[in-house]
Amino acid sequence: MNQFAFESKQKIFLLGAMGLGVVCMVLTFLVDDPLHTRFWSNFLHNSVFFTGIAFVSLFVLAAFTTAYSGWHTLVKRIWETYSLFLIPGLILMGVIILGIWGHFHHLYHWADPAAVAEDEILQGKSAFLNKNWYTIGTVVILGIWAYFAWRMHRISVQEDLQGTSDFSHHRRYRYWSAAFLPVGAFTSAALIWQWVMSIDAHWYSTLFAWYATASWFVAAMALTILTVIFLKALGYMEEVSTNHLHDLGKYAFAFSIFWTYLWFSQYMLIWYGNVGEETIYFRERLDHYPTMFYGNLILNFVAPFFILMRNDTKRKFGTMVLTSIILLLGHWWDFFLMIKPGVYHTAQEVLGHGAHGGGETGHDAAGHAASTFHAGFTMPGLLELGTFIGFLALFLYFVFNRLEKVSLIPPNDPYLAESKHHTVWPY
């Protein structure tokens, strides 16, 4: 079966999961501090995470197409529909922008004019870290990404309906793919710096954009594997074989190693340089978030390394489902660790808990406060997991709604035959 039917029971299940997410967000808002820090940080965390998965899906599709890859043709519709989530992602990040302008949240220390006036480092970065740049950069860049996603999806669907012997649609698809690669590569760094790295506004890392993108990539591969296996369990995508699953598993494995390489490189260079405004990022997480810090490595390196190292494990549905769940949650955990400590520190400063006194600096006082357990910050709580489930359901509802409008297998793609006969040998 090549035409997916989004059944009522699936819609009801996903709507129920979205309802759970809404309930968790409402409860988070009600039990939160006066700034609603936990609520807004959960919203930012999940918005960035799933918007990033959509971006990486588009980038991977563009890269494979430009490289004349053929094996992925049978699964490319999944990435095309993933990439269209950039449109809802623009709306989600628009809510964050409204919160900055309306002073509804204090996620970013640089967004407080009073804080900038008293801080030389924030003043030095104010040409880039300001509300105008954040707004324009997010709207324009995300809008460009969404346009590329929409355009490429439209060309792909037109090829289904009007397939021509001269491959004109595929050539157009390839041109758009090649054009997106430099656009996506350069602009993604700017948004990662704005959305995530600027939460710890006194800190910077030249590797951070690579690191965050690698995390998105592994999460996207994990979610792709889960989607493929789910569709196959329903009787769809019969021509997608264990060979395709094997290659998806290889990408999940390879980029888990690449993510670890970037993690180590960033940590090692900052440790070796021993520059105060750099080391404080890791010092904060090692001292006050040790479970999150070391758990990050266990989930995203140790587990996939030992499970996926063997070739045959990449061809077993049960093993791949388990590993993909670990990786999806693991990289959601990774973004939690990127975002939450800095947001918590900023909230403590605004609430006055980080004021000078008792011989502690503002940062030391905030760090001391973080050494005790704080629900939703020290570790993800049930409300965080419920919110994640709600956002995941929103993502999947959007994807399945788009998938049922097109053929799961592109019938006129010139690389379809190659994909159908794809074999990984030896394995």
3D architecture notes:
The chain has 427 residues and is mostly helical. It has one domain (8-398). It is 72% helix and 0% strand. Helix 1 (8-30) runs antiparallel to helix 15, helix 9 runs antiparallel to helix 10 and helix 11 (276-288) packs across helix 12. The longest helix is centred in the C-terminal third of the chain and has 35 residues, at 317-351. The chain is globular, with a radius of gyration of 22 Å. 44% of the residues are buried. Mean pLDDT is 92; it is low at 354-370.
What overall geometry do the principal axes of the alpha carbons give? globular
Number of structurally distinct domains: 1
| Strand fraction | under 5%
Instruction: Label the structural class.
Output: mainly alpha
Write down how many β-strands occur, each being a DSSP E stretch of 2 or more residues. Answer: 0
Poorly predicted runs are 354-370
Number of helices: 16
Q: Which sequence of SSEs, written as H and E, runs from N to C?
A: HHHHHHHHHHHHHHHH
Oligomeric form of this entry? single chain
Tell me the helix content.
over 70%
CA distance, first residue to last residue: 28 Å
Please state the average pLDDT score. 92
Q: What gyration radius follows from the Cα positions, in whole Å?
A: 22 Å
> What kind of sheet is the major sheet?
none
